[in-house]
Amino acid sequence: MATANQRGQHAHERGTGSGPDASDLHVLAAQLRRMNGEINRLVHGFAGAHGLHATDVQALAAILDAREPMTPGRLREHLGLTSGAVTACVDRLERAGHVRRVRESADRRVVHLRYVPAARQAARAYFLPLAEAAATARARFDDDELAVVVRFLTAMNEELRLVRSDDG
């Protein structure tokens, strides 16, 4: 007998029905793991192609997504690493030409991490298939459905952040 996850996957593969039952937590968890695995595959490929660690790619994403200039201290908090580990990560990223340390405030002790434009273009080119896949998937949903998806992902990330903060 097929599991709920297998039934949902087979329905998706056949293109029939609306896919797995959204109320089935096992199906949801399996799909989240599957998506995470696919994204990790891409991240590890990018890291390997650029002589980086997967954590370095997470750091690049954090720098790219930051709403205000990223500092090594904020990066340490975001990644949950020690100061020494963040320094090593930033050193690798700087040597590889992905980021640069910039002292642009009156307080010369404050260091901002900036994504180098050419490196940003290389990352965009590498991750273009991911962006295209997201656009294709997005096109299958109307704005109201996407609003629910964004609400769910936001809530999920908030909950995971709480779990992470409880651990450390």
Q: N- to C-terminal separation?
A: 41 Å
Number of helices: 8
Q: Largest beta sheet, briefly?
A: 2 strands, antiparallel
- Low-confidence parts, pLDDT < 50 over ≥5 residues? 1-16
Strand order of the largest sheet: 1-2
Which geometry do the CA atoms define? Answer: globular
Helix-strand category: mainly alpha
- What's the rounded overall pLDDT mean? 86
CA-atom Rg in angstroms: 19 Å
SSE string, helix = H, strand = E?
HHHHHEEHHH
Q: Percentage of helical residues?
A: 55-70%
Write the layout of secondary structure elements.
Layout lengths: L3 H11 L10 H25 L4 H12 L6 H8 L3 H13 L3 E4 L9 E4 L1 H10 L1 H11 L4 H25 L1
Antiparallel strand pairs: 1-2
Structure description:
The radius of gyration is 19 Å and the shape is globular. With 168 residues, the protein is mainly α. It has eight helices and two strands; from the N terminus they run αααααββααα. It has a two-stranded antiparallel ribbon. The model is unreliable at 1-16 (pLDDT under 50). The chain starts with a helix and ends with a helix. The chain has helices at 4-14, 25-49, 54-65, 72-79, 83-95, 117-126, 128-138, 143-167, and strands spanning 99-102, 112-115.
